[in-house]
Write a structure and sequence with these properties.
By secondary structure, the protein is an alpha+beta fold. The protein contains 1 helix and 7 strands.
Length: 148
């Protein structure tokens, strides 16, 4: 039987496959616990711009205003911090727990600098609405053209 030069990589490939399987099990285990998970993180965000403002919506079901903090830093960095407290049954037994709890900190780079003094935020039906106004330096300016 003729040996292939690729057979030398089989033990290394097996180890890499085992490592991948171990990491998948580890993250699956965390996914069923307290860690916030998802594609972009928690809370899920929608961001859009219309003219002079950028709008951000964040899903925060079950949170009160006292559980949420919003910061604007560096001109274009939005930070949403908070904590979702667990709703633990006193005498019940968990059969399934998909809603996660704990502290969260979500930072988002906005597409342009905003005026930190012109931010409006409100929480309605578990959705946080944030309206941020473009900073004067980010607004387009008409430049007059001179002729000789």
């Amino acid at each position: 039987m003729r040996s292939s030069r690729w057979q030398a990589f089989n033990p290394m490939w097996d180890q890499l496959q085992q490592f991948q399987d171990d990491m998948s099990r580890l993250f699956d285990r965390w996914g069923n616990g307290n860690a916030f998970r998802g594609v972009g993180g928690f809370p899920a965000l929608n961001v859009w711009e219309d003219g002079e403002e950028v709008h951000v919506e964040a899903e925060l079901p079950g949170l009160d205003l006292k559980d949420v903090e919003i910061y604007v830093s560096g001109g274009n960095q939005l930070i949403i911090k908070g904590e979702r407290k667990p709703n633990l049954p006193e005498k019940g037994v968990w059969h399934r727990q998909e809603r996660v709890f704990g502290s969260f900190n979500r930072a988002l780079a906005l597409p342009f600098p905003v005026d930190a003094d012109k931010v409006d935020a409100r929480l309605e039906n578990g959705v946080l609405h944030i309206q941020l106004t473009k900073h004067e330096s980010a607004r387009p300016r008409k430049i007059p053209v001179k002729a000789d």
